[in-house]
Amino acid sequence: MSSKVAIVIGGGQTLGAFLSQGLAENGYQVAVADLNGANAEKIAQEINHKQGKNIAQGFQVDATNEQSVIALAQNVDRAFGRSDLLVYSAGVAKASPITQFPLKDFEFSVAVNLTGYFLCAREFAKLMVRDGIAGRIIQINSKSGKVGSKHNSGYSAAKFGGVGLTQSLALDLADKGITVNSLMLGNLLKSPMFQSLIPQYAEKLGIPEDQVEQVYIDKVPLKRGCDYQDVLNVLLFYASEKASYCTGQSINITGGQVMF
Ligand SMILES: NC(=O)c1ccc[n+]([C@@H]2O[C@H](COP(=O)([O-])OP(=O)(O)OC[C@H]3O[C@@H](n4cnc5c(N)ncnc54)[C@H](O)[C@@H]3O)[C@@H](O)[C@H]2O)c1
């Protein structure tokens, strides 16, 4: 029997790339999908090289575009013939105080963080249901999906929406044995996304840019930022059979910063 197939949306860089590699190391075939098709292809090639066999393939997709996501599902289905695990990791964050927040940034955040999750979950759920696969859908969310985030109204609103979507999908798909969960991450301090927000955070806090990381570490009871490996560890559990009784959950990976 061929091994399970994971699809990682936003797999072309940073966390998504790390999760793609980690899933491959844990026995999955991996469809690496990203808006940046060249990055997706590069990560897939790296996986194949490291594993010494062709278990990964790169795909270009715009997760916010319905036709593009439908085409992705068809292409993944043609290439791998099954879909067991969808990881939705694509996300964008653009920060501004609310009085200056451009509508286009708000809409862009909702499109990538929420609408894309809806479209991908819908199309890959269809394949799981068609094949009678008790699959897994896992959204990469954020602590900003449980607690408001200053100057991040677009991001936080979209991530909160993701929690409602996860709970609703979990109800829709429960009778098929498909589970749906969100992972609520703390700050990935070394990621380009966090680093790109440092100038705005410095302004918001009234401190020099080189002190921002420490302020964010000090907010965490376990006194460090979230690592990509922390996310992979929890993802592998919720993707596994061991988590078959868990669905509709929003699981904190925040070092104790968020406790509900
Ligand atoms: N970086 C952090 O500190 C942090 C904290 C909490 C949660 N998260 C969440 O983790 C996830 C990954 O974040 P990251 O830091 O790796 O971000 P990143 O920007 O480094 O990577 C995101 C990837 O998504 C892709 N993408 C963007 N729009 C897309 C679209 N329309 N269709 C397909 N792919 C698209 C990008 O090309 C990129 O490869 C996001 O959902 C983010 O909200 C990040």
Describe this structure in words.
By secondary structure, the chain is an alpha/beta fold. It has a single domain, classed as NAD(P)-binding Rossmann-like Domain (Rossmann fold), CATH 3.40.50.720. Helix content is 48%, strand content 15%. The protein is built from 8 helices and 7 strands. It has a 7-stranded parallel sheet, with helices on both faces. Helix 2 links the parallel strand 2 and strand 3. Helix 4 runs parallel beside helix 5. The model has no long low-confidence stretch (mean pLDDT 97). Nicotinamide-adenine-dinucleotide binds next to helix 1, helix 4, strand 5 and helix 6. Nicotinamide-adenine-dinucleotide (NAD) binds next to helix 1, helix 4, strand 5 and helix 6.
Explain the layout of strands and helices.
Layout: E1 5-9, H1 14-25, E2 29-34, H2 37-51, E3 56-60, H3 66-80, E4 85-88, H4 103-131, E5 136-142, H5 153-173, E6 179-185, H6 192-205, H7 212-218, H8 228-239, E7 250-253
Parallel strand pairs: 1-2, 1-4, 2-3, 4-5, 5-6, 6-7
Bound molecules: nicotinamide-adenine-dinucleotide.
Nicotinamide-adenine-dinucleotide binds next to helix 1, helix 4, strand 5 and helix 6.
Which properties best describe this structure?
260 residues, binds nicotinamide-adenine-dinucleotide, alpha/beta, seven-stranded parallel beta sheet, Rossmann fold
